[in-house]
Every structure is written in structure tokens, then in C-alpha cells.
Amino acid sequence: MPTIEVKAYAKLNLTLDVLGRREDGYHELRMVMQSVALSDTLRVTTHTGGGLAVSTDKSFLPCDERNLAAAAALRFQEAAGVDLGGAAIGIEKRIPVCAGMAGGSSDAAAVLRALDELAQTNLTAAALAKIGEAVGSDVPYCVHGGTALAEGRGELITPLPPLPSCHIVLCKPYFSSSTPELFRQLDSVRLRRRPDTAGIISALEAGDLEGVARRLYNVFEDVFPSRRAVEITGIKNTLIQHGALGACMSGTGPTVFGLFPEGDCARRAYEDLGQTYRETFLTKSI
Ligand code: C5P
Fold first, then answer.
1. What is the DSSP string of 169-209?
2. Same domain, 241 and 122
3. Domain extent for 198
4. In 3-state terms, what secondary structure has residue 184?
5. What's the 136 CA to ligand 1 centre distance in angstroms?
6. Is the Cβ atom of 183 under 6 angstroms away from ligand 1?
7. pTM of the model
8. Ligand 1 atom index nearest CA of 180
9. For the complex shown, is ipTM > 0.95?
10. What DSSP letter does each residue of 63-84 carry, written as one string?
11. Rounded to the nearest whole angstrom, what is the distance from the C-alpha of residue 275 to the centroid of ligand 1?
12. 103 is in an annotated binding site
């Protein structure tokens, strides 16, 4: 039975701007995305008959269509016009769940890539991203990965020059975010500040890490109730005190990350935050 092992990389938002609410209920977004080495590992096997079976090493995760990996497999068969017979998808999770790092969307994108290879459909990244659109707004970006501008619902992807080399510390507080709930709340708050998207793109083009780090900004940081905002600010401050050039929340949170030019400083921040927060990681852009 052919089996493929694929990595599903986590993403960070270097910026996240919400331009407005659309008639279809979604929001018009403008975000600079970055993939990082922190990843889930998926083993995808096709066999004759037996339907689709998804399993994960996290018992609290659903294995039916609510799991975006399962949704992606079903959508792939429909859109690519192939009957895989049966497929088994095993997911080893490392990316924190409901954390603003597109873990589920990245698993879905990895399934699309794996099935394309197993079914020998040879679809382009653009075609796989199009299939992924129906699975979730972050899936098209996750198919492409790297440094990119995502616009529209999140599905319009423009590649950008890579983030200059740096060390990244990620830290997830002990609460989870509900994306639809945060979008609803965002509709009723007045945003204090907007990210400088053009400025961060210029900094990426110039290879200017400091310029990028100075412009990290996510409008969802305005939406959290004060107790949680205090915790997010506390983690950001710890990252900065240890030498991060900038720190920001990713996606609809609550994961916070910092960009460090120095590996030693990043390690100290990782060790310090790791004493309080179990889901703290030291990683690199990819
Ligand atoms: O597309 P996805 O299923 O990942 O979106 C989850 C939820 O996030 C949507 O149901 C919607 O409430 C919100 N969302 C949005 N605008 C976007 C993307 C997501 O309002 N561009």
C-alpha cells in the first residue's frame, strides 16, 4: 500500500488587517503570512476500498469531517474526479490547536499535496489551493507556504521575499480562541491601530529584519477582553526583554511570537516562558 509522509508547517501572521465585513459574512483581509519549521507529521496511505479513516495522537480532536484533514480528502476526490478507494490519514500533532497558527488548515493542505502525489494527478499548487478554498480560508496559503501576502477571504496569495534569517519563539497562553467569535467581536470594536502592510513588504524587500519586526501588528489584539489582553502583553514584554526585535499575536490568537536576531537570546526567552507555558517553542522561518 503506497504511503507518503508529509510535514504540515505552522504559520504566523507578521501582520493581520481586517478591511471590512463582506456581504457573504466573511471579512476582507490583508495579511502577511510566514511559515515556520514547527510542524505536524501526516502519514497518508491509499488502499482499495474501506473509505476514509483519520486518526490523531490527540484524543480530543475529531476524526470526522470536522477535522480539516478529512474534509480536504473528501473535497480532493470530488474536485479532482478521482476515487481513491480508501485512504488512511494519521496525524501526529505538534502545532497547538485553536492557537492562531493554522494547524488544521496546514494539515488539510498537506493532505491535498499527499493525495495529489498518491493519485498521480499532478495538480499545480494553484489548483490544489483552489480545492482547499472550500475547506477553509487559510488552506490556500498553507498549500503555498513561505512568506506571502494573503488577501480577500485569505485565498488570494502573492509570494513575498523571505523573512530575513532569525530565531522565533512561540508561546501559547492557556486559553484558546474561537475564530468566528473573534470576528464577531471585531465588528463591534473601534480599531486603535492598523498594520503598515506596505511598510512591512518594503522591509522584506530590503531584507531589513528590524524594519519587519518593528511593523509586526495584528488588529485582533484589540479584541481580547482585558484579562486576556494583559496576558498577551505580558508574554510580548517578556520576549522583548529577552532581546526580541518585535513581538505580536498570530491569527485570532492566542499564540504570541517574537523575532530574535540572536540565538542565545531566543533560547533564554524560550526557557523563561517555557517555565510558565507548556506550549512554548523555539523555531525558524521556512
Ligand atoms: O474559512 P474558515 O472556515 O476557516 O473560517 C472560519 C470562520 O472565520 C468563518 O466562519 C468566519 O466566521 C470567520 N472568517 C471571516 N472572514 C474570513 C475568514 C474567516 O469572517 N476572511
1. EEE--S----HHHHHHHHHTS--S----HHHHHHHHHTT-H
2. no
3. 167-283
4. helix
5. 8
6. yes
7. 0.96
8. 12
9. yes
10. -STTSHHHHHHHHHHHHHT---
11. 33
12. yes
Number of domains present in the structure of the chain: 2
In the block, cell 480577500 appears at 152
pLDDT, tens digit (0-9, with 9 covering 90-100), for 193-208:
999 999 999 999 999 9
Do 27 and 183 form a contact (C-beta atoms < 8 A)? yes
Residue-wise pLDDT for 70-91, tens only, equals: 999 999 999 999 888 889 999 9
Task: Tell me what the mean pLDDT of segment 171-195 comes to.
Answer: 92
Angle between helices 125-133 and 103-118 (to 10 degrees): 130
Q: What is the DSSP letter of 129?
A: H
Q: How far lies 198's CA from each of 17, 180, 201, in Å?
A: 12, 27, 5
What is the CB neighbour count within 10 angstroms for residue 272? 17
Per-residue cell: 201: 513588504
Evaluate: CB of 277 within 6 angstroms of ligand 1.
no
On whether both 27 and 155 belong to a single domain, the answer is yes
